[in-house]
């Protein structure tokens, strides 16, 4: 191990042509520093060339007036060759030009005047040693960051790709011919542009999933996606949640709070159940959308934000506009792009994919393994209208997995309302046919699908019995079930 590596005290090089001054400086500093004393700039340069191979010298304390040169001239060369060394001038003259030149050209950290005070000198050099340490720490951190930057960049990109695969369009389960295909195509087209989007549809159809897909397919994907249920809070609380407030704005406001608009800056804010807000709140929301700024409660200073707003509702907002319950100007501001998410009963061809996905997620959530559904259970699940849409279907599958004690989920695990659906529908055929729409072919297709669902439900998924009742071969029945997206048993 070298002698340099055993040193514990920071080293300071003192250059002064007066021997008594050298000794005084040594006595003052030697308890806290390893002191090197020389009488000329040439000797100082020789010491630096020898010792800086091990980065021993951290501070140079140099007299300004020396034979043949000046401290500023010498330290200018030190700065060029060893920029990390902390440079200090000690002078008995107060020449302003020397000071300016020393600071600008030689990078002098401190300019001390003679006669110096021991306490002041020692404190100055202790601070200089700390400056040197901080410089080294900063350089090390900068090097670490440069080294880690490619790794961090890859991690961020991987995280973004994972989020996009989890929440982007690729996460939507849809069969060929599904009504969701048109919705996803429109999402893909509008996502890159900062347009406000209004998502409508029944509860449980996946309006928030559509909003997330828009966010993660846009240039804002790396920024926050913030959600708020507007129907769950009264106006005063909703306003403070969205816009934030200053300390003392109202009773209980003991500290500043950053609102959701500010938290979502650069990203997307999803406002669910926007149709439940009052006209008074709608005025405040409209101003934010128009101006891109708002004032937190209790503040007199406006905050500017860059936020894309996506709103959702299960209400008929156009009807609410006609009755005056919802502001017309806000509606058109929100509905630059309008998307309607179809109900689950309108996309039965997606059921096979949904059932498998929900079964897998339920098994993972509950830590149980189930192989699949019985034919009877599949027939009942397919025949049910699912008024609660995907959310109701998810809860039903989760319930079945929780109650299961066999590898296959049977019809006995279904909720009574699901099992009753085929019989209830069968008794109301005339009322059902009155709801058919479209041309003759489209109505006949709807009627055929209804009859097939009823037959499969009555026979608990037994294709042979259902085919015998309908006067079809088993192969013919399977073909018709597949055409209508009802073939979920394979």
Automatic annotation (TrEMBL):
<keyword id="KW-0805">Transcription regulation</keyword>
<dbReference type="InterPro" id="IPR009057">
    <property type="entry name" value="Homeodomain-like_sf"/>
</dbReference>
<keyword id="KW-0238">DNA-binding</keyword>
<dbReference type="GO" id="GO:0005524">
    <property type="term" value="F:ATP binding"/>
</dbReference>
<dbReference type="InterPro" id="IPR001789">
    <property type="entry name" value="Sig_transdc_resp-reg_receiver"/>
</dbReference>
<feature type="modified residue" description="4-aspartylphosphate">
    <location>
        <position position="63"/>
    </location>
</feature>
<dbReference type="InterPro" id="IPR025662">
    <property type="entry name" value="Sigma_54_int_dom_ATP-bd_1"/>
</dbReference>
<dbReference type="InterPro" id="IPR011006">
    <property type="entry name" value="CheY-like_superfamily"/>
</dbReference>
<dbReference type="InterPro" id="IPR027417">
    <property type="entry name" value="P-loop_NTPase"/>
</dbReference>
<dbReference type="GO" id="GO:0006355">
    <property type="term" value="P:regulation of DNA-templated transcription"/>
</dbReference>
<dbReference type="Pfam" id="PF00158">
    <property type="entry name" value="Sigma54_activat"/>
</dbReference>
<dbReference type="InterPro" id="IPR025944">
    <property type="entry name" value="Sigma_54_int_dom_CS"/>
</dbReference>
<dbReference type="GO" id="GO:0043565">
    <property type="term" value="F:sequence-specific DNA binding"/>
</dbReference>
<feature type="domain" description="Sigma-54 factor interaction">
    <location>
        <begin position="173"/>
        <end position="402"/>
    </location>
</feature>
<feature type="domain" description="Response regulatory">
    <location>
        <begin position="11"/>
        <end position="129"/>
    </location>
</feature>
<dbReference type="GO" id="GO:0000160">
    <property type="term" value="P:phosphorelay signal transduction system"/>
</dbReference>
<keyword id="KW-0597">Phosphoprotein</keyword>
<dbReference type="Pfam" id="PF02954">
    <property type="entry name" value="HTH_8"/>
</dbReference>
<dbReference type="Pfam" id="PF00072">
    <property type="entry name" value="Response_reg"/>
</dbReference>
<keyword id="KW-0804">Transcription</keyword>
<dbReference type="InterPro" id="IPR002197">
    <property type="entry name" value="HTH_Fis"/>
</dbReference>
<dbReference type="InterPro" id="IPR058031">
    <property type="entry name" value="AAA_lid_NorR"/>
</dbReference>
<protein>
    <submittedName>
        <fullName>Two-component system response regulator</fullName>
    </submittedName>
</protein>
<keyword id="KW-0067">ATP-binding</keyword>
<dbReference type="InterPro" id="IPR025943">
    <property type="entry name" value="Sigma_54_int_dom_ATP-bd_2"/>
</dbReference>
<dbReference type="InterPro" id="IPR002078">
    <property type="entry name" value="Sigma_54_int"/>
</dbReference>
<dbReference type="Pfam" id="PF25601">
    <property type="entry name" value="AAA_lid_14"/>
</dbReference>
<dbReference type="InterPro" id="IPR003593">
    <property type="entry name" value="AAA+_ATPase"/>
</dbReference>
<keyword id="KW-0547">Nucleotide-binding</keyword>
């Amino acid at each position: 191990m070298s002698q340099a590596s055993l040193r514990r005290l920071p080293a300071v090089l003192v250059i002064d042509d007066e021997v008594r001054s050298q000794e005084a400086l040594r006595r003052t500093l030697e308890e806290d520093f390893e002191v090197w004393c020389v009488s000329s700039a040439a000797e100082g340069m020789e010491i630096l060339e020898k010792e800086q191979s091990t980065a021993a010298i951290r501070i140079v304390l140099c007299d300004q007036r020396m034979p043949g040169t000046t401290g500023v001239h010498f330290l200018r060369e030190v700065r060029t060759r060893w920029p990390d060394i902390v440079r200090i001038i000690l002078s008995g003259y107060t020449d302003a030009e020397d000071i300016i030149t020393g600071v600008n050209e030689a990078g002098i950290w401190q300019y001390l005047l003679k006669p110096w005070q021991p306490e002041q000198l020692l404190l100055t050099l202790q601070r200089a040693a700390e400056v040197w340490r901080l410089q080294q720490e900063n350089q090390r951190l900068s090097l670490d960051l440069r080294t880690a930057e490619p790794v961090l960049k890859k991690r961020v990109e991987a995280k973004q790709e994972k989020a996009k695969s989890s929440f982007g369009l690729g996460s939507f389960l849809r069969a060929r011919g599904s009504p969701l295909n048109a919705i996803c195509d429109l999402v893909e087209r509008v996502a890159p542009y900062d347009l406000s989007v209004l998502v409508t549809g029944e509860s449980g159809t996946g309006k928030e999933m559509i909003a997330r897909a828009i966010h993660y397919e846009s240039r804002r994907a790396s920024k926050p996606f913030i959600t708020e249920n507007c129907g769950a809070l009264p106006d005063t609380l909703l306003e403070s949640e969205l816009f934030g407030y200053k300390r003392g704005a109202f009773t209980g406001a003991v500290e500043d709070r950053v609102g959701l608009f500010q938290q979502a800056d650069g990203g997307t804010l999803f406002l669910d159940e926007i149709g439940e807000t009052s006209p008074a709140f709608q005025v405040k929301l409209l101003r934010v959308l128009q101006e891109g700024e708002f004032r937190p409660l209790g503040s007199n200073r406006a905050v500017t934000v860059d936020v894309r707003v996506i709103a959702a509702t299960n209400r008929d907002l156009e009807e609410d506009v006609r009755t005056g319950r919802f502001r017309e100007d806000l509606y058109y501001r929100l509905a630059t792009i309008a998307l309607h998410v179809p109900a689950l009963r309108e996309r039965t061809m997606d059921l096979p994919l949904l059932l498998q996905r929900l079964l897998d997620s339920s098994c993972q959530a509950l830590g149980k393994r189930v192989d699949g559904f019985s034919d009877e259970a599949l027939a009942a699940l397919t025949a049910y209208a699912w008024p609660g849409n995907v959310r109701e279907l998810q809860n039903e599958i989760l319930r079945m997995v929780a109650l299961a004690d066999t590898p296959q989920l049977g019809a006995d695990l279904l909720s009574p309302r699901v099992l009753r659906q085929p019989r209830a529908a069968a008794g109301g055929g005339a009322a059902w046919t009155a709801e058919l729409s479209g041309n003759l072919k489209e109505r006949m297709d709807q009627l055929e699908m209804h009859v097939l669902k009823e037959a499969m439900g009555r026979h608990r998924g037994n294709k042979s019995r259902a085919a015998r009742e309908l006067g079809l071969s088993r192969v013919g029945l399977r073909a018709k079930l597949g055409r209508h997206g009802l073939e979920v048993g394979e």
